Amino acid sequence: MPQYFFDLENGAGFLKDSDGRNLPDDVAIQKELAAILLDVAGDELNGIDPFTAEVTVRDQENGVVMKGTLSFRAA
User: Fold this and answer.
1) How far apart are CA 50 and CA 54, in angstroms?
2) Rounded average pLDDT over 26-42
3) Which uninterrupted H or E stretch holds 26?
4) Buried b / exposed e along 24-34 (16+ C-beta atoms within 10 A)
């Protein structure tokens, strides 16, 4: 099973994934990406301050295979 790395960038900085996860296909990658963004939002989103988090998914050769972004701003 291929290994993928999920790097996180948010207001607190950049966190490079050095462990990775073995996932079978794009659907599994997308579910993991969504789960990470939801976890980050639960930890950092306060409902008042603007917030943006981006996760970049890399393969074993460091090629970008997927990106996900979550943004919040009350108007």
Assistant:
1) 14
2) 96
3) helix 26-44
4) eeeeebeebbe
**Spatial CA neighbour of 68 closest among 28, 21, 36:** 36
Whole-number Å distance between alpha carbons of 7 and 53:
10
* Beta-bridge partners for 55: 8, 68
Tell me the C-alpha distance between 29 and 22, whole Å.
Answer: 9
Rg (CA), the chain: 13
> What's the pTM?
0.91
Residue entry with tokens 């659907």? 27
For range 39-53, the mean pLDDT: 90
Domain boundaries, the chain: 3-72
